[in-house]
Amino acid sequence: MAHGDPFIEIIIPNWNGAKMLSHCLDSLEKQLYKNFSITVVDNGSSDHSLTLLEEDYPNVKVIRFDYNSGFSVAVNKGIESSEAPWLLLLNNDMEVPSDCLQNLATSIPLYSHCDFFSLKMLSYHDRTIIDGAGDAVLRGGVGYRLGTLEPDGERFSNDRDTFGACAGAALYKRTFFQKVGLFDADFFAYLEDVDLNIRARRLGLQCMYLSKAVVYHIGSATTGSKINEMTIRLSTRNNVNLLVKNYSFPLFLRFAPAILVYQLMWFLFCLKKWMVKPYFSGLYEAFRMLPLFSRKRKDILTQFCKSDFQILGNLMVTAEREAVESIMMRRRGLGKNNFFLSCYCKIFL
Q1: Cα distance from N-terminal residue to C-terminal residue, the chain
Q2: Domains in the chain, start-ordered, CATH in brackets?
Q3: Best label site of 133, 140, 170, 200, fewest CB within 10 Å?
Q4: Is the pLDDT of residue 222 over 50?
Q5: pTM over 0.70
Q6: Is residue 49 within 8 Å of residue 136, measured between CB atoms?
């Protein structure tokens, strides 16, 4: 790692992830590019994460919380304490190939018009499968990692513009956060990066997917599974919070059919997974937070004019079309039917 002023600072939030964190940090020690530093923000871990960092990784800067502050608060603290001109956010369940940071450093001057970048995420367990290749957004108020569960191939081997980045593996210019602001701590976890992407695109900032900057992602390592009561509750709550905060009334009316379709599909999914109780818990929490996010929306409305929301809406339609096409390709590869998605595209896109 750099001994002087690093060009890239890596910020890793951690909560009871000692085994994964060790693997991630070991992979970073093997980087060909050396002008970087690492900050781990520990969210009150009760395992041996802090002992591990102190004994085995003395060059890693550690910020400690006495409790689980959530993803947003943790990474915000890391961002606020950072000094490098570029900040790489990484989940602790990542393996980073030795040429990853070198490819990031090479790409930055090539795309000087971009303020943030999305890395290429492959499955840790099957490295021929995409875990995410840039983030799109659904107008129903959630994000979608493009290419998820699709085989890697030529389609993912070229750099391209993308709506936003998954904060589990994203590179941001320091000035990005000066322009856009930090992650919204009231989200706690889930969809906070979708909110950040929307805010950035509303300001005209651009994101580039970097096909050669690869990481391998275990996925859902902290919460234990992709579908559990916490993920359902927080996803439901934050979906509503995101809509309330970021949609003007005309934009909400414009997207109302797509929002209703998404909400119905999400409820049916929760019903199928026997997760109705956390679903309604999330709705109840969103209702209690309605005054807070209404005030946030009011602040946004005072800063932007009607045309800004029109431009954002057009960007979101394009992004959703890309997301639905990606979902259909994945389902097609699995031999599944796309009838309802095809109808949705014809009616709403």
Answers
A1: 47
A2: 8-217 (3.90.550.10), 229-348 (no CATH)
A3: 140
A4: no
A5: yes
A6: no
